[in-house]
Inverse folding.
């Protein structure tokens, strides 16, 4: 797999790929650059989100968790992002690296308009792999604050 020169800077470092991941999803209502997003995520990557309490069960085998490919994620959120402003910003991060893999725990806040209080906060658990002179996002799992679950103060600046 080659590096698309348009997005080469996005995959050169852990910081760059995580910054690009938030950048792609954020913005005023309208289309997102899904080609850029596909360049960040390995073709076999999985995106997983916890379902809010009381949601109908997800497809087996993991109730309470929706598991998606990059294409399924883009389809899942694309319609809403086309009509609603949405901004997600990183508010803290911890990293661990061993050989060619890395794990980042990235706290975030979500906004309808920058400058307003966030409507949600949570944590993205991001698994990364270094190969072919670039970083790949291999997996992303996230969940939100709520029901007594809070982002640790050590991870998130006050937002």
């Amino acid at each position: 797999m080659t590096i698309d020169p348009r997005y080469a800077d996005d995959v050169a470092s852990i910081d760059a790929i995580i910054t690009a991941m938030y950048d792609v999803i954020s913005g005023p209502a309208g289309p997102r650059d899904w080609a850029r997003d596909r360049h960040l995520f390995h073709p076999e990557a999985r995106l997983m989100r916890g379902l809010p309490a009381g949601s109908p069960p997800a497809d087996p085998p993991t109730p309470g968790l929706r598991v998606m490919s990059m294409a399924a994620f883009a389809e899942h959120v694309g319609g809403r992002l086309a009509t609603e402003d949405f901004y997600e910003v990183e508010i803290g991060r911890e990293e661990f690296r061993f050989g060619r893999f890395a794990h980042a725990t990235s706290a975030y806040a979500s906004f309808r308009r920058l400058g307003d209080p966030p409507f949600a906060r949570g944590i993205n658990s991001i698994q990364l792999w270094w190969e072919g002179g670039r970083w790949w996002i291999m997996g992303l799992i996230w969940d939100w604050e709520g029901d007594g679950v809070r982002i640790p103060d050590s991870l998130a600046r006050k937002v």
